[in-house]
Each structure stands twice: as structure tokens, then as C-alpha cells.
Write a structure and sequence with these properties.
- The protein has helices spanning about 20-25, 40-45, 50-55, 75-85, 100-105, 115-130, 150-155, 180-190, 205-215, 220-225, 230-240, 250-265, 270-285, 290-295, 300-315, and strands spanning about 10, 35, 40, 65-70, 90-95, 135-140, 145, 165-170, 195, 215-220.
- It is α/β, with parallel strands linked by helices.
- The protein has two domains: about 10-240, TIM Barrel (Alpha-Beta Barrel); about 250-315.
- It has an eight-stranded parallel beta barrel, surrounded by five helices.
- β4, α4 and β5 (about 90-95) form a beta-alpha-beta unit.
- α4 (about 75-85) packs parallel to α6 (about 115-130), α12 packs antiparallel against α15 and α13 runs antiparallel to α14.
Length: about 325
């Protein structure tokens, strides 16, 4: 039986990354409470775009996996949400914080923080269209126009299930200063669950965020890419007061497990492209790993990548 942990951990939707194999390995041993597919265009789902539909890759043995939709057309977002529910989503999350230019041009993502009327219409249409919970992920706002509190209060009145706040301005992207004080303010102002996001790169950060903000959960994003053992380490720190730091061999073993999962689902060639998106993140903090990253990224098949990783693992085992 799984221990009852204090912190609810969410795995953020990450473009090109949070497919089923990644979610499965990151959540191994039930260390993740809730996960998401990659962000999907609600308009693309409305048009039954094959690529968009393929992103709803919820496996039969997966539970508690939501679909995050992005877009600014209320009607098409609602229809997209219906499709996501039919395809197995356990909740719908509406992205109101993505700063990508392509998303902003479609009036979605962070553009909705500048048009609260449209944001409310999008949320209301989606909520009316589905029977599953509907949440929202947003940012503090744009510099000079901080709208997260105003919007969150309206969303609460309209029945939002929970709100995730990325504690940065839109202009900051994912590297700017993090303001956990904004998460604390939001928690003090609304009664629906608040999930904190931003600046959690090690286990101590997750506990510090919860202690400081009193948020109801922590969403992990780039921190998990840099360290896929982060959720487990958070659980250990919660339950034991300390955690085991991962070794370089642990990272190689994780990559091999990941490659096996990917190969079984996508095959050799398609799988290689997916793994190449993740390898630089996993290997970046290993000593003298730049040559390994470069060498693997030049390989054309997943099988050849796995052969290299097995060879590296063998040398590590011999202390070379």
C-alpha cells in the first residue's frame, strides 16, 4: 500500500516530452498524484487533426491523466474538450499562461490574461461541455498588468476545480525570477485548491514552496527534466527527512528503462527522435557527459543509442 504523502505532486504538460512512456517512468512507484499529456490545441482537436488526436496518448493502465487544451475560440475549445473526454481524459486543464508567439497569435495561452472576458467565455464553454473537472493554469500576468487574482476570483465563482499558478510574468518565460508570494496571495484569496508552479528544482524546493505558500500541491516541470528522480526524492524527504541523491549510473539506468518503454511503443526510428529530445536534459548534470550527449545525438536509431548506454553502464560498473 502506498504511503500517504503530504504534498500532492503534479507533472506538468511539457511539449514533446510528457508522452505516456515519460509519464510512466516519472510516476513509477506512485510518486506522482496527477499528470498531463502534452499541451494540445483545442481548435486542432475540433478539426480532428490526426497529430492533435495522437497526443491524447492515455494508456489503459494510466489513471489520473488530464489533457491540457490551449486556444482562444470558446466554441472550438469546448468541442475539443468533449473529444478529449471521450478519449479518456480524467480532467481538462485550460492553458492561460503559455507565452509562445504561435499560441498568442491564436488568442490563447497568456493572451487570455489580457482579455478576461474572452478567458471567462472559454472557461464557461468548456465547463458546460464536459462532465469531468475543469482546471486552469495561468501566470501572474503581463508586466504592468497583473491579472491573476482578478481572473482567479471570477473562475472560482464559475466553478473552476483548481488553479495552477506559474509564479512568473509572461515575459519571464521559464527562466525569470519566481515570485512564490503570488502563490501565497492567491491561496489566501480563493477557496478552491491552488497548485504552485515555478522554481522547484530540488526536493527541498517543493517542501519550501508548500511551507511558504500553503498551496495544495506542487506542479513539477523543468526540474523533472533535469532530474527524473525528483518526485521520489521529494517523497523521501517528506517521509524520512532526507533523500538519496541520484548517481550517474542511476541516470544511465533510467535512460535505458526509458528507451525500452519508448521502443516497445514507438519502434526504433520514431522512438529515436523522441528520446533525443530528452537525453540532453538527463545527461546534462553528469560529469564529462558532453561527449556522450553529442555522440548519442548523432546516432540514427534507438537500438544504437541503447547499445552505447549499455556500454557506458558496463564501464561505470567496472569503475572506468
Amino acid at each position: 500500500m502506498r504511503e500517504k504523502f503530504v504534498i500532492r505532486l503534479f507533472l506538468a504538460p511539457i511539449a514533446g516530452i510528457t508522452k505516456s512512456p515519460f509519464r510512466k517512468l516519472i510516476g513509477r512507484d506512485n510518486v506522482i498524484d496527477y499528470a498531463y499529456t502534452e499541451m494540445i490545441s483545442g481548435v486542432a482537436l475540433y478539426h480532428l487533426d490526426p497529430k492533435a488526436l495522437s497526443l491524447i496518448d492515455i494508456a489503459p493502465d494510466e489513471s489520473s491523466v488530464g489533457v491540457q487544451l490551449v486556444g482562444g475560440d470558446p466554441v472550438k475549445m469546448a468541442e475539443g474538450a468533449k473529444i478529449a473526454e471521450r478519449w479518456g481524459a480524467s480532467s481538462i486543464d485550460i492553458n492561460m499562461g503559455c507565452p509562445a508567439r504561435k499560441i498568442l497569435k491564436s488568442d490563447g495561452g497568456a493572451k487570455l490574461l489580457l482579455d478576461l472576458d474572452r478567458a471567462l467565455k472559454v472557461f464557461s464553454k468548456v465547463r458546460e461541455a464536459v462532465t469531468i473537472p475543469v482546471s486552469v493554469k495561468l501566470r501572474k500576468g503581463w508586466r504592468g498588468r497583473e491579472t491573476f487574482l482578478e481572473l482567479s476570483k471570477v473562475l472560482e465563482r464559475e466553478g473552476v476545480s483548481w488553479i495552477t499558478l506559474h509564479a512568473r510574468y509572461v515575459e519571464d518565460g521559464s527562466e525569470g525570477p519566481v515570485d512564490w508570494g503570488s502563490i501565497r496571495r492567491l491561496k489566501e484569496e480563493i477557496s478552491v485548491p491552488v497548485i504552485g508552479n515555478g522554481g522547484v528544482n530540488k526536493a527541498e524546493d517543493a517542501l519550501a514552496m508548500v511551507e511558504f505558500t500553503k498551496c495544495d500541491g506542487v506542479m513539477l516541470a523543468s526540474g523533472v527534466l533535469r532530474n527524473p528522480f525528483l518526485p521520489r526524492q521529494i517523497r523521501e524527504l517528506e517521509s524520512k527527512g532526507y533523500y538519496t541523491k541520484e548517481s550517474s549510473l542511476d541516470r544511465i539506468n533510467w535512460l535505458l528503462d526509458f528507451c525500452h518503454e519508448v521502443k516497445s511503443l514507438y519502434g526504433d526510428d520514431k522512438g529515436a527522435k523522441y528520446v533525443k529530445a530528452i537525453i540532453p536534459w538527463i545527461l546534462r548534470d553528469m560529469s564529462s557527459s558532453s561527449w556522450l550527449r553529442g555522440y548519442i545525438l548523432r546516432l540514427g536509431s534507438l537500438s544504437s543509442m541503447m547499445e552505447v548506454l549499455v556500454s557506458v553502464k558496463s564501464k561505470m560498473g567496472r569503475g572506468e
